[in-house]
Write a structure and sequence with these properties.
The complex is a heterodimer of chains A (249) and B (411).
Chain A (H helix, E strand, L loop, with lengths): L1 H14 L3 H12 L4 E11 L5 E11 L6 E8 L7 E5 L7 E6 L4 E5 L15 H4 L7 E2 L5 E5 L2 E10 L8 E7 L5 E7 L5 E8 L2 E3 L2 E3 L2 E6 L5 E11 L16
Antiparallel strand pairs in A: 1-2, 1-16, 2-3, 3-4, 4-5, 5-6, 7-9, 8-9, 9-10, 10-11, 11-12, 12-15, 13-14, 15-16
Chain B lengths: L1 H15 L3 E15 L7 E15 L2 E12 H5 L9 E12 L3 E8 L18 E2 L8 E2 L2 E9 L3 E8 L22 E8 L7 E9 L6 E11 L4 E4 L9 E6 L1 E13 L2 E12 L8 E16 L2 E14 L16 E10 L7 E9 L4 E11 L4 E11 L7 H5 L2 E11 L1
Parallel strand pairs in B: 10-14
Antiparallel strand pairs in B: 1-2, 1-23, 2-3, 3-4, 4-5, 5-8, 6-7, 8-9, 9-11, 11-12, 12-15, 13-14, 15-16, 16-17, 17-18, 18-19, 19-20, 20-21, 21-22, 22-23
The chains are: A mainly beta (249), B mainly beta (411).
Chain lengths: 249, 411
């Protein structure tokens, strides 16, 4: 009997996977795209199901020390040509600039607080910044579960930054591909705030890319859907494509 | 003539070329609850702007034109505001090299960091036919070469041809001169008006713990500050006022420092008047703080703004700030900006500008929102309490109260 318990324990530890490992593997399968270019359709749906839509063109440069991204608004027409340039940093606040075409003005943005809404959506700035395992703390082992006939890992992490709007993130990861399927965000009061559902993954040049994220805010019943269209990766984008000069181009 | 040819080019290019078009049409209605006697108590304005952009790899050509129609210009000859126009704002080409860019043509530039008044933003003169609180800039002919470093840019700009500044006529509420004054829009320049104005600018950003955006500009040529002369005493039946521009050497800088959720801003300039005997050397300084509180109510952000301006002439016996109509000579601005952060991009901004020398206050509150995917609504209320004892620009306007409604269609 003693031998059986020991055997059972050792086999458990052999297959157990920590929350950190799940996050790390999850990060690995979507990394290595070098750069990406896409159109992003943002659909904002309020509690009365009224819809507002925005269309953006986005390019991203993958970098070890923090990604660089440039977003240009294509619609609505009154914000067409507005650009948002972001340099992420792991050791300090991000550098952010907004270009307002009507005034031809480049405006510096203070980026300290990551919990603010991104362009009026249910996404916060921190939800859309590139995933980096170092931004979170992990404890314990992930749960192995089955949902809709699929084997998954249920893991959790806690943001390290005191400026984060969250106290905990719980995420469901496909056990075979390590692609995130769902994420729950818990607010500063430790109550469930939002759920993001990830879908329409596609493989581009051997790298998994997300196609759609649906973010539901449980506290105000609002929803935002992000849809990536015409995405391409490894386009050969360089640092100069993210120089401040591109704002006025 | 040049404008007509360029507008014709714009029309032809829109018809035949594969270019991107965008623009907007606005209808604005204003009621002046307090206004000087003899001036209109309300006004309606229609404004349209269209921009055409042709892009071919590294080459970009831009044409931008505006048209404005004033209700009283259409109504009757006697009541004309003379604010209606068709105007070519921009017509320029630019070509991008790997580390450089060249541009030439008629264009508009922005320089500055502050929110209420950008004292270094003098590349383009204002169009005096616009409404007082939403000044339009006039495009100017210039050519520029810009070299880009890893973190900044160095520009050499040559500007030529100071434009005339047409002004609205007396019945319009924001015409500041007395009713008997005739304004001559032909600009009087110290030398030939095509004498080039040269700018050398360097701007960049630091990659430090507290990030800094900085810009330094050196200028030789015509100043952005103008002055007016009269051919007869103002008490005479019909004096004519003329707009003058003179030569300066000028140093300017504008900067933004990021400290957490706070932006610290500085704009400064020093002008050395070269020959003109009526205008003094001067400096102008602007300091600003902008702090943003996020999610103060639901998704809404609250921006707290504070700015201080100081203008000072350095020589006695020459034009003073009052004669130069400089309104930001010792002024403090306190304001709030409430961004709802919802799908309609609605915001409310309000504040007070207090003149610390002449005991004047200007209060305003403005609401802006998209009301459909292509329509935008703007409502504002303004109240000005002018100086009772000093002949300032606001004293000439008198106690002023207005309501404004603007509806814009964007395409």
């Amino acid at each position: 009997m003693k031998k059986f318990v020991l055997l059972a324990l050792s086999s458990l530890s052999l297959f157990a996977i920590s929350n950190f490992e799940v996050a790390q593997k999850s990060d690995r399968v979507i990394s290595g795209y070098e750069d990406a270019s896409s159109h992003i359709r943002m659909i904002l749906i309020n509690a009365n199901a009224d819809k507002r839509e925005r269309l953006m063109k986005m390019i991203v440069l993958e970098k070890e020390e923090g990604d660089k991204s440039l977003m240009e608004f294509l619609s609505p027409a009154d914000v067409k040509g507005t650009k948002f340039l972001n340099y992420e940093h792991t050791n300090k606040d991000d550098d952010q600039w907004l270009y307002l075409p009507a005034l031809k003005r480049v405006k510096r943005i203070a980026s300290k607080n990551k919990s603010g809404s991104f362009m009026g959506s249910e996404f916060a700035y921190e939800d859309l910044s590139s995933f980096n395992v170092d931004k979170y703390s992990y404890e314990g082992e992930a749960l192995e579960i089955e949902e809709n006939g699929k084997k998954m890992y249920k893991a959790y992490s806690k943001p390290i930054s005191k400026y984060s709007g969250y106290t905990k993130q719980v995420f469901w990861v496909d056990a075979s591909t390590f692609l995130i399927q769902k994420m729950e965000y818990y607010d500063r009061k430790k109550e469930l705030l939002k759920t993001a559902t990830y879908s329409d993954y596609k493989k581009l040049s051997g790298i998994w890319r997300i196609g759609r994220i649906e973010m539901l805010n449980h506290q105000n019943d609002k929803k935002t859907i992000l849809i990536w269209e015409n995405e391409s990766i490894k386009n050969g984008l360089k640092e100069k494509n993210f120089h401040k000069r591109v704002l006025k181009k | 003539m040049i404008q007509k040819v360029l507008l014709l080019c714009l029309s032809i290019s829109i018809l035949f070329a594969d270019i991107a078009l965008q623009g907007h049409v606005e209808l604005q209605s204003q009621a002046y609850l307090n206004h000087p006697q003899g001036k209109h108590s309300y006004n309606n304005t229609a404004f349209a702007q269209v921009e055409a952009t042709y892009t071919n790899e590294n080459l970009e050509a831009i044409l931008k034109a505006s048209a404005q129609g004033d209700y009283y210009d259409l109504k009757s000859e006697a009541e004309k505001n003379r604010r209606s126009f068709v105007r070519l704002d921009e017509a320029y080409v630019k070509y991008d090299f790997d580390d450089a860019q060249v541009m030439a043509g008629k264009s508009i530039r922005f320089w500055g960091a502050l929110e209420v008044d950008n004292i270094v933003d003098g590349f383009n003169p204002d169009d005096f036919r616009s409404e007082l609180f939403n000044m339009d800039k006039l495009g100017v002919y210039n050519a520029a070469y810009t070299y880009y470093t890893d973190t900044g840019e160095l520009s050499f700009i040559l500007k030529s041809g100071e434009p005339d500044q047409k002004m609205a006529a007396f019945p319009y509420v924001y015409y500041f001169f007395p009713a008997n004054v005739n304004y001559d829009a032909n600009l009087q320049s110290e030398k030939n008006r095509y004498r080039p104005t040269i700018y050398l600018s360097y701007s960049g950003s630091t990659d430090t713990q507290y990030a800094l955006d900085y810009a330094f500009i050196l200028q030789n040529g015509y100043d952005s500050q103008h002055y007016f002369t009269s051919d007869a005493p103002i008490t005479s039946p019909r004096p004519t006022f003329t707009n003058h521009v003179y030569l300066v050497n000028k140093a300017m800088s504008y900067n933004t420092l990021v400290v957490g959720s706070t932006l610290l801003k500085l704009e400064a300039l020093y002008a050395d008047v070269i020959n003109d005997k009526t205008v003094s050397d001067y400096y102008h300084l602007g300091l600003g703080v902008e702090h943003t509180l996020t999610q103060v109510y639901k998704n809404a952000d609250l921006g707290i703004l504070c700015e201080y301006y100081k203008y000072h002439t350095l020589e006695d016996g020459k034009y003073t700030d009052l004669q130069l109509f400089e309104t930001f000579q010792n002024d403090l601005f306190l304001g709030l900006r409430y961004s709802f952060n919802e799908g309609d991009d609605a915001s409310i901004i309000g504040g007070v500008i207090a003149d610390l020398d002449y005991a004047e206050q200007s209060y305003y509150i403005e609401y802006e929102s998209r009301i459909a995917q292509t329509l935008k609504l703007n409502l504002d209320y303004r109240y000005i309490e002018p100086s009772q004892t000093t002949l300032t620009a606001f004293n000439l306007l008198g106690r002023h109260q207005r309501l404004s409604l603007k509806l814009g269609y964007y395409f």
